[in-house]
Amino acid sequence: MIREEYEHLEERLLSPLACLSKNSVGRAIPEKKDPYRTDFQRDVDRIIYSKAFRRLQYKTQVFIAPKGDHYRNRLTHTLEVMAIARSISRALRLNPDLTEAIAVGHDLGHSPFGHAGEEVLNEKVKEYFEDMQFVHTEQSLRVVDLLEKRLKSDGTEVFGLNLTHEVREGIAKHSKGLKDLKDFSDSALPSTLEGQVVRISDRIAYLHHDLDDAIRAKIIKESDVPEKVKKILGDNNSKRLSTIILNVIEESRNKDKITVSTDIEMAMDEWKNFLMEKVYIGSEPKKEEEKVKIILGFLFDYYMNNIEKLRDYLHSHPIIIHHKDPVSYLKEDKRERVRAIADYISSMTDRFAIELVQSIMFPSPIS
């Protein structure tokens, strides 16, 4: 099917509230339309074929370096968000391609070691410049706009995926931190319903899989789940997931905002607070996060004092567009040095960061 036919299908089949591909605000740099893919389908492909997307499989979701093959990582989290968001989106007759593009791109800027790594990088950039910050949502946008490369049809390689406005906005506004759902104003929401679907699907996904992983790790038991959560949402994880998804669909159908009923929202917030108390803060596996401060803190300071060690990386960083000798430039410009080092460290996988510290700290054996 060629693109025009697909766009016509969207117009006939999707809800009047859906964001149609042909009505996209477009890309920062205008491009010739693809002959058979819509703009949003094209964005999905650009993200999935990126290196940043493949690295997600070796980045922590919640538990650092768990023993066992069934714990979630950042990639499986992303896929579960996509699956939930796509189900809701299809039921509401929203644009499934836009939903999928936002979902697969939403966590591309996550650092190694999950939110613990994000906190360390934020502390380090602020240590050098108080007005700087490292936030994974902003970094996700930086990855798709600047850091990731793509090959154009003429064979030239350029920086930035040049995604559509709607996908970029959905990525930028997907996060809620650990706040209650009621604590957000409408201005914090993405302008498209597809973006709002991904936003709530992110919360649904991590409530579901973080509890599942915590039970697998024997940190908590199913019987520990608050009675109110079980009474409203269901007495097992599968029922709870289905209850919330169904409620989002029923409460949002033919409305211009994605929402859940008050009782479901309260139960979700209680579930989140339960995980925060029992899993996210102070549990035995989370004590490993102290080592994250040592690993990433060491790397940050090491490269601040030895920026020439990043010579190869900097030649594949967009800084090379304007500075042919990026090492000399960064030795003079401390602020840009902090930014480039944050880019480098945040792109690492958990295992790469650990191996890098070992290679710097310990002598290599003679073979």
UniProtKB/TrEMBL annotation:
Nucleotide-binding among keywords: no
A matching Pfam family: HD
GO molecular function terms attached to this record: triphosphoric monoester hydrolase activity
SMART domains per UniProt: HDc (SM00471)
InterPro entries documented for this protein: dGTPase, Diverse_Catalytic_Enzymes, HD/PDEase_dom, HD_domain, PHydrolase_assoc_dom
Gene3D superfamilies from the UniProt entry: Hypothetical protein af1432
Domain of life from the UniProt record: Bacteria
Domain HD span(s) in chain numbering: 74-207
Keyword vocabulary terms for this entry: Hydrolase
Protein name, per record: DNTP triphosphohydrolase
